[in-house]
Design the sequence.
């Protein structure tokens, strides 16, 4: 690993281990980390270039997504994902997390969504299949979630150097996303805090997007006796969607 990676690692520890999120210094530390990440390259990680080669993904048994575990403790996790060209990492969430994504090879398209409201219920996998037109019996219980979200502008991020080449998500903004490799295989460096599967309920969930008219989306999650749904904001013209949680995809 390079000296730049060592600086990134030290700054990640300062940001997520030594500073509380509510601390006045947190935003500054996070911005410094984002600036350092914007300079990171594939060479800084000493990864084999064959990981991102088109030929690697032409092998019949090769999965469309490669995961490289770099580091993890109970405060943050560092990893690298390599995606086959045109492969889309399934739409998923980052509950109560901060995340930074730096493309180190190729380019990706990121579609992000910000949560506005949610509702949980219990269903079965068989009832979900029936809703999709697949007949069957039985099925296991599945906690299903419907989330009202606002779509953020799509971003295309490449491995060019600069702070703008590092995407950021927070517990309150852009905390649902799907990522597609474009123009060839792509690799990105990822920092998440806290990691998934800590002592807190930090589990990944996957979703499918259900478009709805905006005037109905504002009412979609309302129920008698529950907190009133969000009132429409006249200055917020972001498209609304409802995300419906699904079982973990088989190809991921």
Sequence:
């Amino acid at each position: 690993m390079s000296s730049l990676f060592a600086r990134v690692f030290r700054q990640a520890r300062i940001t997520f281990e030594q500073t509380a999120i509510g601390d006045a210094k947190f935003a500054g530390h996070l911005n410094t980390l984002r600036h350092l990440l914007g300079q990171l390259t594939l060479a800084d990680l000493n990864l084999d270039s064959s990981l991102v080669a088109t030929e690697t993904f032409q092998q019949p048994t090769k999965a469309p997504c490669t995961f490289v575990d770099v580091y993890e403790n109970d405060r943050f996790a560092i990893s690298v994902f390599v995606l086959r060209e045109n492969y889309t990492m399934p739409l998923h969430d980052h509950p109560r997390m901060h995340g930074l994504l730096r493309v180190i090879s190729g380019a990706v398209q990121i579609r992000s969504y910000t949560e506005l409201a949610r509702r949980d219920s219990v269903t079965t996998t068989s009832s979900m299949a029936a809703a999709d037109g697949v007949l069957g019996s039985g099925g296991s219980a599945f906690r299903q979630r419907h989330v009202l979200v606002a779509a953020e502008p799509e971003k295309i991020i490449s491995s060019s150097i600069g702070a703008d080449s590092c995407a950021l998500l927070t517990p309150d903004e852009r905390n649902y996303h799907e990522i597609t490799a474009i123009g060839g295989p792509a690799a990105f460096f990822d920092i998440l805090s806290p990691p998934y599967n800590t002592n807190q309920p930090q589990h990944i969930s996957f979703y499918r997007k259900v478009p709805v008219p905006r005037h109905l989306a504002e009412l979609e999650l309302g129920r008698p006796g529950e907190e009133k749904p969000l009132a429409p904001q006249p200055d917020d013209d972001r498209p609304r969607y409802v995300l419906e949680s699904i079982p973990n995809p088989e190809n991921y």
